[in-house]
Amino acid sequence: YPDFLSDKVIEWFKTRGIKAQTLIDLQVSEGSEWMPQTGKTENTIKFNYFMGDQLINVKYRDGRKNFKLFKAAEKVFYNINSIIGYEYCVIVEGEMDVLALHEAGIKNAITNAISVPNGATLNTNNLEYLDSCIDYFEDKEKIILAVDDDEAGQALQSELIRRLGSEVCFIASFEDCKDANEYLIK
Fold first, then answer.
1. How far apart are CA 101 and CA 114, in angstroms?
2. Lowest-pLDDT range, 72-86, 101-115, 120-134?
3. Mean pLDDT across the chain, nearest whole number?
4. What's the per-residue H, E or C state across the chain?
């Protein structure tokens, strides 16, 4: 196992169906970070957002499922580099869903998965991250939208279709599961 992930974190990911190699592939790390929700420094999982070879942002997740992104940092899709040179891509709502799809084999065959940086929020269509990443989608023949089947996820899906074009957007369903990670576990 890599030295940047503790056995405890590796074991937790295993309960979510995610193996250590996927964490290495997607450059997930671990470290201490002050979390505003708890008002103290917590051990966190770090989802590192790269664009090219530059670290653009980090999303921190603590054991209580509190999240934090760097406020002043640019928002971009998680794992955005992975879709360069591919005709297809999958867009999901969270980093865990990207890991789940990678674990299930959605990696470098014909497509890769990326995630919006801040999930779906009702009544918020602020997709500034899409504007900064729009060039990544110009060569896509198929964009598969695999968002959560709740009201916020459906609103995000509609906005992505509007912005990216209905002619290239296709919709995935996880049947009776909430998202890709739940489907992987099932």
1. 10
2. 120-134
3. 92
4. CCCCCCHHHHHHHHHCCCCHHHHHHCCCEEEEEEECCCCEEEEEEEEEEEECCEEEEEEEECCCCCEEECCCCCCCCECHHHHCCCCEEEEECCHHHHHHHHHCCCCCCCCCEEECCCCCCCCCCCCHHHHHHHHHHCCCCEEEECCCCCHHHHHHHHHHHHHHCCCCEEECCCCCCCCHHHHHHC
